[in-house]
Amino acid sequence: MEVKEVEIPACEKHEGFHRIKVKLNWTCPICGEPRGDIKKVKSYDGSLWMICDGWDNPCGHVDRYFKVITEAKTNGLNV
């Protein structure tokens, strides 16, 4: 199983700079297909934006950052 590290917003109200790096199994948690290619995207928290990592899963399932953080806390890769 492939593992990748991404830099994402650490919280919903990131104030333009609160970010974390997490390691993830690079498969969709819903269907098990590979996640998409990592690219730089803008994350807007309602007042400020920042550049972080994002991806579009070919399977069509959307990875929300808050769910990715929960996944990272439980996948055993981020100790």
Would you write up a description of this structure?
- This protein is mainly β and 79 residues long.
- Helix content is 13%, strand content 33%.
- It contains one helix and four strands; from the N terminus they run E-E-E-E-H.
- Strands 1-2 form a two-stranded antiparallel ribbon. It has a two-stranded antiparallel ribbon with strand order 3-4.
- It is globular, with a radius of gyration of 12 Å.
Characterize this entry briefly.
Helix content is 13%, strand content 33%. By secondary structure, it is mainly beta. A hairpin with a 4-residue loop joins strand 3 and strand 4.
Overview features:
79 residues, mainly beta, two-stranded antiparallel sheet, 4 strands, globular
The count of strands amounts to: 4
Strands of the widest sheet, in order across it, are 1-2
| Helicity level | 10-25%
Q: Can you tell me the overall shape?
A: globular
* Radius of gyration from the alpha-carbon trace, in angstroms: 12 Å
- Low-confidence spans: pLDDT under 50, at least 5 residues? none
- Biggest beta-sheet profile: 2 strands, antiparallel
Distance between the termini: 18 Å
**Secondary-structure element string:** EEEEH
Given the structure, what is the number of helices? 1
Specify the structural class.
mainly beta
Mean pLDDT: 96
How large a portion of the residues is in β-strands, by DSSP E?
Answer: 25-35%
Layout of helices and strands:
Layout: E1 3-9, E2 19-25, E3 39-44, E4 49-54, H1 65-74
